[in-house]
Fold each of these.
Amino acid sequence: MGLAVSTVYGLGMIALVDDAVIATERLVLRPLQVDDVGEMAVVLADPALHEFTGGAPATLDGLRARYETWVEGSGSPDELWMNWIVRRIADAVAVGTVQATIIDPDGTATALVAWTIGVPWQGQGYAGEAAVGLVEWLIGCGADSVIAHIHPDHQASAAVAGRAGLRPTAELSDGEVVWRRGCLAARLNLDGQSV
Ligand SMILES: CC(C)(COP(=O)(O)OP(=O)(O)OC[C@H]1O[C@@H](n2cnc3c(N)ncnc32)[C@H](O)[C@@H]1OP(=O)(O)O)[C@@H](O)C(=O)NCCC(=O)NCCS
């Protein structure tokens, strides 16, 4: 997915998203393409993935429509949608997805991140490894703050966030705890609830 974001969007961050491939020790995160849909429909087929986030697995057509929307983008100059397929480097098998919604309403770029690993590949540290790669990449590209909304009982996702350097705040969003990793500027803009 070639994103000429630095010219299309007014975002203060991200000069290098044309090449938004993120590599970690065992994984490579590549920008999602609509052609990934067949493989991902299988990876995301288990209803257990929705235990804490709600909803149900999408049909193939539903997932294709979603991916087409995601690739098209938000249509807003202040909001950038980025989605990656997480693949094992060893065999190129897709194991999950990560995403970041980046907003920059006032010159302070905030990235809202989320992660999903297919049930057969869970428990091997893939989500934590992908999250570390994603968050470091976002900060390296200029994100002032990275946040995640995590159900208070979702221990695995909380552990993933913690491994990526996010910390729980006192903020709630639709009943989910707001986790945050922020730089000094982001902290100064907040009300003291975050770390
Ligand atoms: C959350 C999710 C991505 C974790 O994927 P994963 O690849 O199994 O995670 P990891 O193997 O990296 O494990 C992450 C941590 O959670 C811990 N963990 C895993 N399953 C756990 C469980 N059922 N209860 C408590 N802790 C658990 C691991 O021990 C690990 O902790 P550590 O880093 O301290 O060792 C996966 O469960 C998932 O896709 N869930 C559905 C989608 C979702 O809810 N995403 C979160 C939206 S923000």
Amino acid sequence: MIHEWTPTRISPGNSPTITTDTLCPTCWLHPETPTHLHQCNHPTRNKIYQTLQLQLSKLFFKFNLDLHLYQMYWLGLRNTHDNQTQHTINMYPPPFHNLFQTQSEIGWKQLHYSRFSKHWTHYLSQHHPTSKPQLSTPRYLP
Ligand SMILES: [Zn+2]
């Protein structure tokens, strides 16, 4: 997904000329652009996003991260393009406002490319300085 080179049916490296070739192979309703890849509402893709959401929530729980951070990441990831009206700074307490504002400035779409504003790191280093993965207990064979 780097730099819009997501291997969708319409991307800078792939411009098919037949209209049906541009449609999303899951819903067959919209051109499969990198944007549509994250917004397709077909049940098959919804299931994939539900799995992703579950895995993300487990990671945030594992690292004991603030749920506001999880919410901001998830909503930012899902509402990255045209519909930012449902994701507003007022959804978060003041300690998250700098983070929200700076990510808004560089674009929520950047989360798809693992580009976070520096305030994510700043927030994490201040509020979760020891957030490291819990190593599982070593297993020994008898
Ligand atoms: Zn689709």
